[in-house]
Design goal:
Blueprint lengths: L2 H9 L23 E11 L10 H19 L2 E11 L4 H18 L2 E9 L3 E11 L14 E5 L4 H9 L7 H12 L5 H6 L6 E4 L4 H12 L2 E5 L12 H13 L6 E5 L4 H11 L3 E8 L3 E5 L18
Parallel strand pairs: 2-3, 7-10
Antiparallel strand pairs: 1-4, 2-4, 5-8, 5-9, 6-8, 7-9
Helix pairs in contact: 2-3, 4-5, 4-8
Length: 317
Amino acid sequence: MSEFDLIKRYFTRPTPGAVLGVGDDAALLRVGDGMELAVSTDMLVSGTHFLPDADPFLLGYKTLAVNLSDMAAMGALPCWVTLAIALPSADEDWLRHFSDGFFALADQFGIELIGGDTTRGPLNLSVTIMGEVPRGKALRRDGAQAGDDIWVSGTLGDAALGLAHLQGKTVLPDDIRERCLAALQQPQPRIALGMALRGIAHSAIDISDGLLADLGHILERSHVGAEIKYDKLPVSTSFGGKDMDALRQRCALSGGDEYELCFTAADTQRDEIESAAYRLQLPLTRIGKIVSGSGCKVRAADGSVMQIERSGYDHFA
């Protein structure tokens, strides 16, 4: 099967939302009046971002999901993606399942694949996603203000626990393993939440490298500090003894692959945020405050400052 047969068979679909889609030297797009274009790129590398024997359907799903999460963090409506793949070989069974997973999520959110590239090489997946957001309404990292509440969506730590199980670092009971692996392999992009937070949140980011690491990006860009309360974190998994408590703490504070949103907002917006949580049927939890200064302190239930060894994932640390 040639490169062009591969693209035509597995990755070419109608693109009514684009002026021109797959098949030319470039796609052509038309952005709506009064809208800005949000653009983000993520790369997933075998052995770094996923295990080499990962299920291709779930991998296709997650490849798009992590990019959708970036649109959610900006409050943007996702519209188009490009996909670049390096493949060791043109394995048609693998390609069929991968594209099925990718398009299952694309269809759910009305995303059009408008171009990309394929080449032979170690398995590498790169998506560029584009979305629209009303002019001046995008959520950004640089708007947090002292006195803001810090919120997170969903629960924390499940995806990192699922990875720890796959890596043999822990053994999870059946019911907990199923939930944690689902969180790791099929994260739910918070698109509706991001759009609901336009005009409400002062800043936002998605949690991909760990709560402390990603909140740290907001603090750095906004030139502020933070204090969070560990006992307020929405951690869903509770089992095991002291060793498990330590692992759960690391996963909740520093574990990546969450793709929940962390955002800040004035305390006067609490009713609006709680109303959004009810409408979306999505738990939203206040975990702390933005303060003047820099850095983030994590306080235990007794008020003492916890010593955290690692804030999150860093590819080059």
